[in-house]
Amino acid sequence: MRWTQSLIPTLKEDPQDAEVISHKLMIRAALVRKLFSGAYSYLPLGLKVLQKVSNIIREEMNSSGAQEVLLPAMHPPELWKKTGRYELLGAVLIKFKDRHNKELVLGPTHEEIITDLIANNIKSYKDLPLILYQIQTKFRDEPRPRFGVMRTSEFIMKDAYSFDRDVEGMEANYKKMYDAYCRIFTRCGLPYIPVEADPGMMGGNISHEFMVPSEAGEDIIAVCRKCKYAASTQIAVCKISGSAAKGTVKRLPIAEVETPDIKTIEKVSEFLKVEPSKLVKTLLYKADGKVVALLLRGDFEANETKLKNYLKSSFLELADEKVVEAITGAPAGFSGPVSLKDVRIVADNSVKNMANFVTGANRKDAHLINVNIGRDFEVKEFADLRIITKDDKCPSCGKDIDITRAIEIGHTFKLGTKYSETLGAKILEQDGKTVTAIMGCYGIGVTRIIPALIETSNDKDGIIWPISIAPYQIIIVALNIASKKVKEVSEEVYGDLIKAGYEALFDDRDISAGIKFKDADLIGIPIQIIIGEKNAKRDMIEIKNRRDRSVIEVKSKDAVTHLKQLIVSK
Fold first, then answer.
1. Distance CA 488, CA 504 (A)
2. What number of other Cβ atoms are within 10 A of residue 155's Cβ?
3. Fewer CB under 10 Å: which end of the chain, C or N?
4. What are the structural domains, with CATH classification, of the chain?
């Protein structure tokens, strides 16, 4: 493709609303343009990358035995109401009414739709196992679209679904998809890490997220420095409490102290001259409408995912000010477990061995010191209910861990019968008995792969694409195209590349060499062929590697031979 016939409106400056490097470079390198917050147009370069990513996904999914389908983007709300996700997703669902006043939902995902399809078309054990997938646009009313195409209201996703007669079959298909994901992300050039994760609204009991470590990520993961343990901080196991055994400490008399308008852990700690680790905070939650008190060491953060799973609740939220005051008799910030009545108390393991600690007094402007479990109040339930920290040890091998931000690019779930039971996906076995199909679900953020790659593969000058998903494999940078010899050699090389089957972009613009070099680096095409007047007179060209900046000189007629070696080595 010739640059003069292409739409490649590169920019010199970063867009003002761009926060992360991938957003800046996708705009500057003319991959995308924003229509409005949460919706982007893909320009030719961006679409070529998107298509290459999709092709890799298709190749690996097909080779694993999955079959491609295409499901509707518009859904009847009845299916979503049957599974309870109509209410669960709430404002995230984009809803509208057609001319017949019938409500429709734009699909944020397709579990309900695929399960309904199977329920109405697959009846015999002979038709299973089955894996179906699609690459489809999804719609979610994101409260805060951000980071360019990283989080948008309209995005492209690959979602696959497996259906099996038994758990053993589902496990086999899950491994197939897990392995296919590893191949997909490797081929895309992504430095991914599979981590254990919480299934969340998807349901099921086991899931894995595929993460790319990046400061631009919205997720946080714990990774062991020695073994292969990696998990989302939502579920990463905490095994240390950091507190002395209470049996070895003399219990001091409980006492109430005045703490005028001092509510936060930091301020209470400073006022009473005790470490935050000597405080216990009491957080009141509403779990499916019932109030629960969570006790947590002062220097730790509550893990609401763990708490929700422990309580087996469908909906969990912090209690509001009115509820807190009604339950404790005091404003938020002064809650404590002593004399707390008619409330279920659960405590994080970090509290179990604490002694003589500080809590709220359930009275405005007051706290209690020297509080002890067993003497001053009772706790019958202890569990791991906090977020892991960098000071914790690996729950698998006991060595040091790192806590890092990451971008989620894929997620696999063992759904079980959550959807198939509700939507009637039943299978008639050989013995005449009916069983419920066991499902797995496997998603990849197709559009998210592009910014994830850019976040991990760039330099001060622009994007550095791997050959596998680069918009073009080669760019010909013709310096001084007005020169007859430069134009002649450039046309010859370009023609040879096209005949040999290479994807080449020919920068045939009549502009300065400086702009051409900057644009070539900015858009990040892996191999640059530079043709200047001095070399052209000798029928020589320069072949430059965008990643390591290495340059070799070769005869223009030998360009294809050298490029074959370069591209194979990549």
1. 17
2. 22
3. C
4. 17-71+108-211+405-454 (3.30.930.10), 246-383 (3.90.960.10), 472-569 (3.40.50.800)
Distance CA 371, CA 251 (A): 8
Q: Which amino acid is at 375?
A: R
**pLDDT tens-place string over residues 527-569:** 999 999 999 999 999 999 999 999 999 999 988 988 887 776 5
* Stated length of the chain: 570
Please state, in angstroms and rounded to a whole number, the distance separating the CA atoms of residues 430 and 427. Answer: 10
CB 406 within 8 A of CB 220: yes
Provide the pairing of β-strand 366-371 with 255-258: antiparallel
CB atoms within 10 A of CB 220: 16
Residue 248 CB burial class (10 angstroms; 0-12, 13-18, ≥19): exposed
Alpha carbon distance 108, 445 (integer Å): 12
Please name the helix (run of DSSP H) or strand (run of DSSP E) that holds residue 60, with its range, or none.
Answer: helix 44-63
Measured torsion, CA atoms of residues 106, 111, 117, 119, in degrees rounded to the nearest 10: -140
The dihedral sign for the CA sequence 134, 109, 211, 524:
positive
DSSP for 406-434, please give it: EEEEEEEEEEETHHHHHHT-EEE-TTS-E
Confidence at 31, pLDDT banded by 50, 70, 90:
very high
Residue 491 CB coordination number (10 Å): 15
User: 277: which 2 tokens?
Assistant: 């680790």
